[in-house]
Amino acid sequence: MYCPYLLLLLSLGVSAVEVQRPRGVPLSKRQFYEEGKPFTCLDGSRTIPFDRVNDDYCDCQDGSDEPGTAACPNGSFHCTNAGFRPAFIPSSRINDGICDCCDTTDEYNSGAACQNTCRELGRKERESLQKMAEIAKEGFMLKQQLIQEAKRGMTTFFCFLFVHRNIEKEISFDFGPSAEFGYLYNQCYELTTSEYIYRLCPFSRVSQKPKYGGSETSLGTWGKWAGPDDNVYSVMKYEHGTGCWQGPNRSTTVKLTCGKETVVTSTSEPSRCEYLMEFTTPAVCQEPPSLDSMHPDHEEL
Ligand SMILES: [Ca+2]
Ligand SMILES: [Ca+2]
């Protein structure tokens, strides 16, 4: 019968299945470690009796005979980390007194007081993934509204076009595949740091002004969309700002990430006169995958 068999398997639980492979061996390599049969190093270099697997003496050049001890300098240890995600650690960290695996399995013989934190870590990760998914979902809904508004706006644009010829210029901007970035036009967003007020006016310019008086410096005027080929609308480039003393003209890269609100979240100057701005907007939100497929709850049995 199928069901009782399954129930039996489940009731045996994780540990019962785990004893079938030597310590530190990932499930994917279990078939190479067959109890009682000679073991061939995974690089094929030599074959040794099975009792030399995990005997705390390094026999294989690739370290594969000592997956559960620190005997081989190049060995790696696999933590199952049930409840969180599996990981490999260098075997030198086995029994070194420091808890590396959240399931505590790397410290089986050191006396270190490790606590199994996998379930807690897994719970936190699921929570943050869920939170991100919710932001993406709401952001994507807002994006649909932006697209609708842009469509209505476009109709108005074309009506005006015959009256105000200069609107033609606005239409020539690339406001995204569905004009979802159009709402940013003619808007400005500020971020105040301890020294400066940064101002991003999308499709127009980026500037910086000392907080306590002083003149404004241009960090670039609208250049182009500059994201990677598969995601062009994720980065904006502003160029030809005020020249740096004995240096290039200032320029700014604006990275767009999905968010419910339209805000400049940070600015930095990773290299001289080249600024980086992070900007959240619902316009870049992608349709999120369904929540069910996002749970990374792959507990290895
Ligand atoms: Ca050995
Ligand atoms: Ca350790």
Automatic annotation (TrEMBL):
Keywords: Disulfide bond, Endoplasmic reticulum, Signal. This is Glucosidase 2 subunit beta. Residues 186-287 form the MRH domain. The gene is prkcsh. Residues 1-16 form the signal peptide. The keyword ATP-binding does not apply. SUPFAM superfamilies: Mannose 6-phosphate receptor domain (SSF50911). It comes from Sphaeramia orbicularis (orbiculate cardinalfish). PROSITE patterns: MRH (PS51914). InterPro entries: Gtb1-like, Man6P_isomerase_rcpt-bd_dom_sf, MRH_dom, PRKCSH, PRKCSH_N. Pfam families: PRKCSH-like (PF12999), PRKCSH_1 (PF13015). One of its GO terms (cellular component) is glucosidase II complex. It comes from the Eukaryota. GO terms for biological process: liver development; N-glycan processing. The keyword Disulfide bond applies.
